[in-house]
Amino acid sequence: MPPDTFSQALLDWFDRHGRRDLPWQREPTPYRVWVSEIMLQQTQVAVVIPYFERFMARFPTLAELAAAPLDAVLAHWSGLGYYARARHLHRAAVLIRERHGGDFPTAIASVEALPGIGRSTAGAVLSLALGQRHPILDGNVKRVLARSFGVTGWPGQAAVQAELWRLAQRLTPALRVDAYNQALMDLGATLCTRTRPACERCPVGERCVARRQGRQAQLPTPKPSRRLPERATLMILARDPQGAVLLERRPPTGIWGGLWSLPETDPGRDPADWCRERTGAAPLRLEMHPPRRQTFSHFALAMRIAQVWTPAAPMGIADTDREAWWQPGALAALGLPAPVRTILADLVPPDPGQPLPRE
């Protein structure tokens, strides 16, 4: 399919059916588009919209994001998952303030140099916000191109990805790049979907290799399957006599990085031993709750949950930026992993003035 035929067909379709009223499209500044693109990584539009609107209400400018504490950013990200995105977003805002005078850079090399921004995200921000000619290659676009042009092989392989990038570069038009890139993403999100694609309504369906060969279910080639490894942990829901909850901040990297979470220990350990070691006394009361399971991209986590009521004067636990006692009314403002937020919502009676929301 000639590049100009493909791009013009998409632009014509976008003019009739494209999405043009998403929150970040109403005022497509580089800052707003950047935040939306980071949120949209591995997350659907319908999920992102309310998070984006709350995030913009709290951090309406890049300067306010850079000046905010990381805890506040993580709290507004809680429930979206993939928390490294929030940490990178905050770090990038600080770097833009320090290195670019607070203005989002307009050179693609400078954008790609920021934390959490790869080639596709950089191209999306500069094309959608500023109209610069850059190709994009997110998951939706990979699917559209692989099917339209019959590109075989898992897109995670370097050679396959390189071929898709060559296609993306060749097909990107010189004019209306913002509309074209948005059309590509919209097509993948609404018609050229992973399952049950609406090929009869596709603007490029007549020349699509996958449709012609009946290979829509085979393209793009799926990632080779493998069984997720299993991990287990014991989560301690410690309460002091005043009802406060003990939380520990997670390490800056890894799952739930930088978020406040419940203390964890070996899954086979006696929770009473944990209490004696951490507080210097046996628990006043101990309850075991049904285990829960959380699936991540690379493993599945089985969580045993023990609720422990500590003595009146816990020893060895002091409020710091690494661990602290939190009253139930303060939990809603913290950056918490969604499973931990759900556990707390289920097991900790809320403060009447500020209930803990479920995710």
TrEMBL record:
SMART domains registered for this protein in UniProt: ENDO3c (SM00478)
CDD domains: ENDO3c, NUDIX_DNA_Glycosylase_C-MutY
Gene Ontology MF terms: 4 iron, 4 sulfur cluster binding; 8-oxo-7,8-dihydroguanine DNA N-glycosylase activity; adenine/guanine mispair binding; metal ion binding; oxidized purine DNA binding; purine-specific mismatch base pair DNA N-glycosylase activity
A Pfam family recorded for this sequence: NUDIX_4
Cofactor(s) the protein needs: [4Fe-4S] cluster
HhH-GPD domain sequence ranges: 39-190
Name of protein: Adenine DNA glycosylase
